[in-house]
Amino acid sequence: MAKIAYILLCHKDPEAIIAQAEQLTAAGDCMAIHFDARAQDADYETIRRALKDNPNVTFAAKRIKCGWGEWSLVQATLNALNAAVDAFPRATHFYMLSGDCMAIKTAEYTHRFLDDRDMDFIESHDFFASNWIKTGMKEDRLIYRHYFNERTQSKRFYAAFELQKRFKLTRDIPEDLQIMIGSQWWCLRRRTVEMIQEFLRERRDVIRFFSTTWIPDETFFQTLVRHLVPKGEIENRTPTFLMFSDYGMPVTFYNDHFDMLLGQNYLFARKISPEAHELKERLGALYASTGVDFPISDEGRNLYAFLTGRGRVGRRFGQRFWEAGNTLGPERELFLVVCKKWHVAKRLVDQIASETDIPCVEYLFSEQDTPLPDLGGIETTLNKRSRHRRAVVRMLFEHFGSNQLVLCLDPANLDVIQDFCSDAAQTHVLEIECDYSDDYLIGHARRVGLAGQNSPDQTVSRLLPTIRNDLSYESQQIRHAGLDGYLRLRESADRAENEAAIAQFLGVGPDKAQSIMRLDYLFSD
Questions:
Q1: What number of CA atoms fall less than 13 Å from residue 244's CA on the CB side?
Q2: Which of 81, 176, 223, 271 is the most exposed place for a label (fewest CB within 10 A)?
Q3: DSSP per residue, 181-232
Q4: Is the pLDDT of residue 313 over 70?
């Protein structure tokens, strides 16, 4: 059975550290603590006194003054790791934690999870080929030597950097290493840790190299594990659930995140707010519990992106120059059927296709499997269709040999609607306004990844007002966009009103509009 030695790097809040150590060792696991040498000695002594009688807790032999982006963080980790290997010979796994981490699964679940997977869990992407680094230095992190802290000694840091660049004082990366990058929160098997220790005893040059790179905690273990362990024995992810804002700051979890955290496919989470006392208490009691079932919904990241994105509706990248230059042609008519309930729009366009000669295409910019003719490859992915949407639609006109075309669009695609309405073609917009039951909204949340199939109903229910408001906001944006030829088909309207809207939209007579609208189940879920 798995026995975990937790490697805890911390620098504050001694009472929380004591509680964390007691909670995680109560189930038979163990812990090695490194407490930052920059922190108060009195706090360190408080921790040592409180835990001195706990046989499952040990401390790094030497405390290091740690700084963000420095080798000191890696050295502190190595010191705690070495202490854990020596103190806990029966430990099978070594799990990296900070003082802001807390378990979101029970020890029973965690041990079973590790027993079932003979793997190392560490995020490790190719340093040069991946886009893990979004902004700032990339290769310069490695080929120049960084002796100063970028945050506390920024003038010296950049002066030394610029001096090396000026005189081309670069260095080679160890030729036998493929540099990898990823999160510093990992869980490694004992044999992997022992291989790393042996490798470092033989390869002091590797320590010399990494000790003057910038932010080595994102590259050191990630590189060595990939160098020493077969790829098939590495799961390329962190076992700790964490998210970052658009500004690169860690997302903090609070009391009302308990249910969401338990549904994520991870073992721990960070960062837990120091003020989230209820959340800490509930998670603290969780680890030693038994018989707890964890339905995995894994909606956390999608949910966060959805909720934070509500304030940024309408911010889009500008059109590419080749898109702006394309035109469908003034002789053509484009009919846009806009509806959030895709099945309703599809029923309507099926009727239009059967009652008229106008070719119809369903949600080609939202649905990968939309039936499309061969357009030379431009139609093969949603990304290609969206990037070159005018070219795709022009080719559809040509393929069907028609100057009329019906398209279905999602209301979220306001930028696409506006783009087509700005074209020289005659564009008509028909928005289908539907009613949304709670059951439909719950299904919608699950379809788009805001909730998993196993998300608790209470958790999903709390989302419903936000989702309902979001759908209403999308519709308002369309109505207020000032689109020429805009019409509405409403579920709440009578048949005659909707038939008149269809007649005006397609330019057909009353009899044809009646034939199109004869479906009694058009709006049914």
A1: 7
A2: 176
A3: E--S--EEEHHHHHHHHHHHHH-HHHHHHHTTSSSGGGTHHHHHHHHHS-GG
A4: no
- pTM beyond 0.90: the answer is no
Phi, psi for 252 (deg, rounded to 5): -105, 140
CA distance 353 to 189: 61
CA distance 495 to 21: 68
Q: Which burial class, exposed, middle or buried, applies to 212 when counting CB atoms under 10 A from its CB (0-12, 13-18, 19+)?
A: middle
For residues 58-68, give the mean pLDDT.
96
- Which amino acid appears at position 486 of this protein? Y
- Could you give the angle at which helices 190-202 and 72-87 cross, rounded to 10 degrees? 120
**Distance from CA of residue 438 to its chain's centroid?**
26
461-513 confidence digits (pLDDT tens): 888 888 899 899 999 999 998 898 899 999 999 999 999 999 999 999 999 99
Q: What is the spatial distance between Cα 210 and Cα 203, in angstroms, rounded to a whole number?
A: 12
Please report the pLDDT score of residue 24 as a whole number.
Answer: 96
pLDDT of residue 246: 65
CB 430 within 8 A of CB 501: yes
Which among 127, 153, 125, 156 is positioned nearest to 140, based on CA atoms? 127
One-letter amino acid at 285 equals A
Considering only CA atoms, which of 307, 94, 54, 277 is closest in space to residue 190? 94
pLDDT at position 294: 93
Question: Can you give the length of the chain in residues?
Answer: 525
- Report the pLDDT value the prediction gives residue 315, as an integer from 0 to 100: 35
Distance CA 512, CA 365 (A): 29
For residue 396, which of 348, 322, 328, 342 has the smallest C-alpha distance?
328
Measuring CA to CA, how many Å separate 148 from each of 68, 141, 157, 162, 180? 11, 13, 5, 13, 23
- Cα–Cα dist 238/43, whole Å: 30
- Whole-angstrom Cα distance, residue 265 to residue 295? 9
Amino acid at 364: L
- pLDDT over threshold 50, residue 399: yes
Distance from C-alpha of 452 to C-alpha of 298, rounded to nearest angstrom: 6
DSSP secondary structure of 337-351 = EE-SSHHHHHHHHHH
Whether the predicted pLDDT of 333 surpasses 70: yes
The pLDDT value recorded for residue 316 is 33
Strands (E), 436-516: 486-490
- Cis-peptide, bond into residue 168, ω within 30° of zero: no
* C-alpha R_g of the chain: 29
pLDDT tens digits, residue range 129-169? 998 887 789 999 999 999 999 989 999 999 999 999 999 99
Question: Which secondary structure element, helix H or strand E, spans residue 431, and what is its range?
Answer: strand 426-433
Return the pLDDT at 447.
Answer: 79
